[in-house]
Amino acid sequence: MAPRLTLRRAGAEDIRFVMAVEATPGHDAFINQQAEAEHAAQLASPAFAYFIAEAEAAPVGFAILSELTDRRGNHCLKRIAVAQPGRGFGTPLFNAVTDWTFANTAAHRFWLHALASNGRALHVYQREGFTIEGRLRQARPRPDGSREDLIILSLLRPEWQALRRRAA
Ligand SMILES: CC(C)(COP(=O)(O)OP(=O)(O)OC[C@H]1O[C@@H](n2cnc3c(N)ncnc32)[C@H](O)[C@@H]1OP(=O)(O)O)[C@@H](O)C(=O)NCCC(=O)NCCS
């Protein structure tokens, strides 16, 4: 059974936790790290929303939404990560931010991208109903000078409504 998580909006006091999770060994292969000042500027921007997932009152992961001011209803999950992958926290966090987005914004298309090598994330996103839209070939440079494909996925509002109706 999925662990019980609560989702809350993050404040400036949560930036350190976000940065600590970004710096988790192994995460650097899949997510970027940002400086404290960049996080603070994003946190203060209406285009972004930061969330913290908690289990038993302790933070276990975060998610950052972007493009929330897009007038065409395309909102983005910029980053999602948990401190301890593989414990079942990422799936409810992912679903909670998806629900928040469709319930609290005019999003029609909620989208994200993942590195082609990120099998765990791609598995979770597709299992939870997201569709692969395409592949940005060699879009992401690696530290060793090679390049990797990015996979674009999305969920549309009618698809989200149908998924949650089925789950009810
Ligand atoms: C992606 C992430 C948020 C998912 O959260 P999580 O807590 O690890 O995910 P869960 O434990 O809920 O589920 C993991 C699923 O992936 C599967 N999995 C694990 N490794 C896998 C792999 N290499 N390939 C395919 N599936 C894999 C597990 O079997 C499980 O699926 P199942 O429940 O259907 O068996 C988390 O792994 C994470 O923070 N990763 C590092 C940062 C990152 O990659 N962020 C996403 C950037 S796009």
Automatic annotation (TrEMBL):
Coiled-coil spans in chain: none
InterPro entries the UniProt entry points to: Acyl_CoA_acyltransferase, GNAT_dom
Domain N-acetyltransferase: 5-158
Pfam families named among the record's database cross-references: Acetyltransf_1
Domain of life: Bacteria
Protein name in UniProt: GNAT family N-acetyltransferase
